[in-house]
Structures are given as structure tokens and as C-alpha cells.
């Protein structure tokens, strides 16, 4: 096999360069070697046409192949192939159009050699080797003259293109693929002479990932072919799905040489997982591999799966038959951009056995279309026919050229080569052949150009497989993906036009676990993908967006269903049932105290009033009235002023009350001790001294309260610690030290009162005031000792209620212990209201 002396179309950083090297002298050793090394193969092209420059075309004219045993010990038999005749005819048509165009490549003609690769890398390799060996291959000596091979158009699959490209690369022969989309070809160091008119798969996997996210398909299966196209596509898809909510349930691979047993294993995995939780499968495979796989799939009678097809098979006409619809109907995928070739339909009709009597491909086509054999010498069992039969309706899969896709890519590839060669041949010295170092031309109204990686502009049609009027599958365009648009705007879908698997108009669900209801969150199962989860209700104070629970803002709380944040309920000791009860009790206590005051004032001249020091009694009753009324300050919404008044008014009024009782206790004690011979204590406890005692004792409390208000006064606060679902409005004491100081001072006064009264409890007399003071102080101290732990442990408004209750309880205790016995004698036992009786000196 000789080295090519004509190295055309070097493509480097966007520039196609024509290099013509004419080498006429070869060494005699090469010539002599040619007599020894004879090509031991027979791989004839399907179609041949001579020209000044030859373009080779490699197409999967058949899909099912039976590979012979190639052990290199004998001349191998030809490969038996049994499938893209129209693509090859499109190349022939394009070449004829270029040759007829007076403005494109004037004075030059293009020829072609078209080979069949059977959609198999090994067969594609044999085609590439045959491409490099001139027009006639049998008995062709090596290294004898130059080949006019300009470029190769092919291959259909990425795996085949890798093989062919590597064979052509040492000879710098460019290869332009019409259907190899593998992202691996973007590596210009490995594939410097490879170009294509189909978008890079990086864009397709990006489009598929956006489709999965768009329809919330979070649990999908992936099936791929055993080749670089499938491997790189799956890798790209997994990369695009990172950071999304989509999980891949499994990955399976269709073997390169189809194996039914392996295919059945894939289907069992697919069917089992489909029954459990999902019904969506993404497939990156070629048409040739999918054909036997889907036929076996249909035999298993598996339905209900939503297929997402790659561009390699989403528009394959082989799957348009009625028998496929129950299993593949509703398939969605991304098809390469369609175009329009005006002469293609008429050109296809001119291809018949009469015009090409010796062409086996045409003969096979006729047998497949009409079920007859146009050759009389054929050993076929089919009935004979003339080879001039008219096209029938059922031949639409072959003759329908209204929206060609792959054929249009073949068409563009031929014109890309023609325009490149034209620019090179017409190039003027000193100026480059390509404007802006890039090839651009317009065909059928479309601008065709390439990026620096040799790829075309990314654009896909979104295809949906729907039932046609005749029952066959029709490819309906339901949207597009434009890779030139900004991120997030590439995908445009008309969802109402889509018919999903099972003739459903609703988007199918494909999840491992159903979405959590509002108010719950996802809890990932241990050892399983993130798409498999349990739903756990959100905690109090949190709401969910079906993914995770988030806290409500500070002043808000979750509703019962944990679906929305609502304003927290604001609580304080309001005028509700509890507040009204305390208010009524306070008013009743104050009224009772006023009634007692009125009784005492009315009977102020009686013995019991006079003996018990009426002035101090009036002071005590006045102070008790204030004590009853100060509890009202604890009811209602806390404000700045009410918070400062609550504890200060309470502490001062109670201090006043206890000071009066302390004064009374001292007077009682002094009155009885003054009766003893030689003692005169009463002169030190006259009215002025009593007032001074009351004033001075109360003044101490006033000073403490004043310091409290100046240093750290009480203030209203919003308490959310006791119960997070509520906002409790309360009065913060400001300074805890000051608060406990005022309570401690009142306690000190009460204890002093109690001790003095206890000492005078056994003094003579029928009405010993000291006993009642002792009981009153005992009750007072008991109430406030019980108040301290209750106050500390009570939250918010209950703390105010406890304090208010303590005020009322202690006030009632003082009122009843000190004045109930007196009122009893005054009102019910007036005969005992005498000095003699009270002093215990009445005659018996």
C-alpha cells in the first residue's frame, strides 16, 4: 500500500489547507516490493464515480452483520451485511450538483467511492483500508503513483469513526462525519483531521439533563452501546446531573456484537426496577444495535416504559412500523437539525435495477421494497420483477424526504469539502483562503460554519414518537434546544403537544420515592442514593419546601400542617377569664377594705376602735386598699410605664402596710408593758413617733425603688424561651438584685412584725391584738414564701398571675386576720364593745 502523495485539507485551528505534493520518483526497491506484496482482500465499493478529486464515503448500508473468522491465514470472505441506502444516494446527489455548478469548482470535477461499513468498527476499518488503495483494488501493486483521494465522509457511529480516523490520520486525509457525535473528538491532539457537521454530544447530554430536570424525572435508567459514543455520552450525562436532583438507577450496556442472553438480562433489570419505582430509560445507542435489542424487548411484552432517545436512533425510520408503537410510542429524544434537499426525492426514484443492473445494493433494495428479484440469474427464492416498479405508499420510510436529518448532514459534508477545495484553489498569494480563519458557506438558506474544535453549531429538534393516521409511528417536532442561547434558555418545549408512553397526556412520574408532602422533609435512607428517601414531618417552628425544613422567622411559627409560617400568638395577662377573675377579686378586696374603713369610721368612738388605735387602723386600711388595687397593674398588656409601676407600687404599698402593722405591734406591746409599775414606754410611742416609724420604714423602700428605677428599671420584653410557639409579653425586672431587695425588705418587716407580735401573744385581755397580728404575719409570710418558687417556675403571663394572686391572698389574709374579729364585735356583738370587756375587767 503506497503513501499518498496528495495530502489535502489539513485543518488546523479553523483553517482547511490544501497541500499538493507531487512525487513522481519512487525507489526501485518499492517497485520491486510491490511484486511481492499483493493485496489479499476483496472489498469493493458500492458506488464509484471518477473525477479530478475523489471523495470517499463510508455508510452503514446494512446493519446486521455476520463476521467471518479473520485469522490472517487465508483470504477472508466478504462480510455478509443485511440496512442507510438513502444517505449514500444523498452523497451522490450532492457530488453531481457540485459538478453541475458553474460557480463552485469550475474546471474541476469530484468523484466518489462509497463503501459499506455495516455499522461495525472492523468493517469500517476494512473500508478505510480499501479507500487508500486506488480505484481498483484487486491485484493493485503498492506504492505506484499518487491517489487523488481528497477527503472521507463518514462514519455513522463514533466507534467506527475513531477507527477510520486513526487510519487516515498519518496520511493527513481529513474525515468529515455526518453522524459521529462523541465528545471524545474534541481532542484535537488525538483527532487533528476529524471534523463533523453534527453537534458535539456535550450539548446533547446537557439537553437531556435539562429535560430530566424539567419534568422532575429523578430516578432513571441508562442503557448505552458498547463503544466510545455510549461511554462518553454516559460520562457527560453523569457530569451534567451532578448538583441536580436526578439519580441514575442503573447503567447497562448492549454488547457490540449483539448477544440475546445479555440483552434479556438488561431487560430483566429494567423490568424489575420499573415495577418498583420508575418508568424512564435513557438510551445512548446506534440504530443498528437498537434494532435487535428492541425486537427482543417487544417479545418480552414489556410496556409502560418512557424512553428518552439519543440522536443516534430517535429518527430511525426502521422503528416507524405499527408493531413498534405499543412499546415505543411516546418516546422523546433530541434529533439533529433537519433540512431541505430539493432534488433528493426525484433522485431516489431514479435509482432502480434497470439503471444499475450489476449493483448488488440496488438489487437488495428492490428485494426489500417490492419483495421480488429484479435479476433473472439470481438464486433468490423471491418472484421475478422488471426493476421498473413505481414507488408505493409503504415505501415512505425510504422516499420521504420532506425533513431529512442525517441525509442533510451528508449533504452539508459534501458541500463543506467542495467549498473548502474551491477556496483553496482560488486563493490568491498573500491572502488566506478563509475569512476569519474559518470556513463558512450558505446551503438551503442555512449558514454552515465550524468552531475551533471542528464542530458545528449545536442545535437539536425535540422529537416525540406519536401514532400517525395509518397507525405507524410519526416523528413530531415538539420543541428545540438551541445551544447558542444563554444558560437556562436553551430548552423550549411545547408540552401540550407531547404524547407520552401509553398514550398518556400527563407527564409520567419517574422517582425512587414520591415527593414529600408539604410539611415534611426528606430523610435519606442509609446506603441508598439521595433520590431514595423517607418523608419525616418537620419539627415545631419549621416549615418545608418538600426538600428540607427551615425555621420560621423569629416572630412567626409553623402552622399545624407545617406548611406556612404564621404570626406567633402574643400572650400576656389579659382581661380574659383569668384576668377578669383577678380583677374582680382585686376590686372586691378593695371594696371590702373600704367597707371596713367605713365601719371603723362610723364606730370610731367605740371602745374597740379607740383601744386599737384608730389612726393606725385607718392607715392600715388605706394601705390595704392600695395593696388590693396594685394587683390591677399586673393585668393588661405590659407597657413602659406599667412595667415600672408594677413592682414599685406593689413594694411601696406593702411596705407602707407592714410599717403600719409594725407600728401597731409596737404600740400594743408598749401599752401592755406600760401598765407595770415603774415603766413608762408609751411616751416614746406617741402619735408623732408612730407616724415617724411608718414614714421612715416606708422611706427605705422608696429609696430602694428609686435606685432600682434609676439604675436598671423594669421594661416590657418579648419572651420566646418558655414556649417558642408564642410570644409572651412580660415585664423584665431589669435588675434582679433590686427586685429581690424590695421583696427581701418586705419580708424583713413582716418577720420583725411577727416576732414582736409573737412575744406579746400572751398578754392579758379579752381582745389581744397581738394574737391577730401574729396570725396575719404568719399567713403573710406563708403566702410569700410559697410565691417565690411558684414565681420562678411560672412562665410569662402565669408569673404575673402568680404575683397578682400572692398580692391578693396576702392582702385578704391581713384584712381578715386584723379586722374581721373587730367587725364581728362591732356589728354583731355590740355588748362586748366596752373597755371593761376588752380589758378583761368586767364583773362576772
TrEMBL record:
<keyword id="KW-0325">Glycoprotein</keyword>
<protein>
    <recommendedName>
        <fullName>G-protein coupled receptors family 3 profile domain-containing protein</fullName>
    </recommendedName>
</protein>
<dbReference type="InterPro" id="IPR011500">
    <property type="entry name" value="GPCR_3_9-Cys_dom"/>
</dbReference>
<dbReference type="InterPro" id="IPR038550">
    <property type="entry name" value="GPCR_3_9-Cys_sf"/>
</dbReference>
<keyword id="KW-0732">Signal</keyword>
<feature type="transmembrane region" description="Helical">
    <location>
        <begin position="614"/>
        <end position="636"/>
    </location>
</feature>
<dbReference type="Pfam" id="PF00003">
    <property type="entry name" value="7tm_3"/>
</dbReference>
<feature type="signal peptide">
    <location>
        <begin position="1"/>
        <end position="21"/>
    </location>
</feature>
<feature type="transmembrane region" description="Helical">
    <location>
        <begin position="804"/>
        <end position="827"/>
    </location>
</feature>
<dbReference type="Pfam" id="PF07562">
    <property type="entry name" value="NCD3G"/>
</dbReference>
<keyword id="KW-1003">Cell membrane</keyword>
<feature type="transmembrane region" description="Helical">
    <location>
        <begin position="692"/>
        <end position="710"/>
    </location>
</feature>
<keyword id="KW-0472">Membrane</keyword>
<dbReference type="InterPro" id="IPR001828">
    <property type="entry name" value="ANF_lig-bd_rcpt"/>
</dbReference>
<feature type="transmembrane region" description="Helical">
    <location>
        <begin position="772"/>
        <end position="792"/>
    </location>
</feature>
<dbReference type="GO" id="GO:0004930">
    <property type="term" value="F:G protein-coupled receptor activity"/>
</dbReference>
<feature type="domain" description="G-protein coupled receptors family 3 profile">
    <location>
        <begin position="578"/>
        <end position="842"/>
    </location>
</feature>
<keyword id="KW-0812">Transmembrane</keyword>
<dbReference type="InterPro" id="IPR004073">
    <property type="entry name" value="GPCR_3_vmron_rcpt_2"/>
</dbReference>
<keyword id="KW-1133">Transmembrane helix</keyword>
<feature type="transmembrane region" description="Helical">
    <location>
        <begin position="578"/>
        <end position="602"/>
    </location>
</feature>
<keyword id="KW-0807">Transducer</keyword>
<comment type="similarity">
    <text>Belongs to the G-protein coupled receptor 3 family.</text>
</comment>
<dbReference type="InterPro" id="IPR028082">
    <property type="entry name" value="Peripla_BP_I"/>
</dbReference>
<dbReference type="InterPro" id="IPR000337">
    <property type="entry name" value="GPCR_3"/>
</dbReference>
<dbReference type="InterPro" id="IPR017978">
    <property type="entry name" value="GPCR_3_C"/>
</dbReference>
<keyword id="KW-0675">Receptor</keyword>
<dbReference type="GO" id="GO:0005886">
    <property type="term" value="C:plasma membrane"/>
</dbReference>
<dbReference type="InterPro" id="IPR017979">
    <property type="entry name" value="GPCR_3_CS"/>
</dbReference>
<keyword id="KW-0297">G-protein coupled receptor</keyword>
<feature type="transmembrane region" description="Helical">
    <location>
        <begin position="737"/>
        <end position="760"/>
    </location>
</feature>
<dbReference type="InterPro" id="IPR000068">
    <property type="entry name" value="GPCR_3_Ca_sens_rcpt-rel"/>
</dbReference>
<dbReference type="Pfam" id="PF01094">
    <property type="entry name" value="ANF_receptor"/>
</dbReference>
<feature type="transmembrane region" description="Helical">
    <location>
        <begin position="648"/>
        <end position="672"/>
    </location>
</feature>
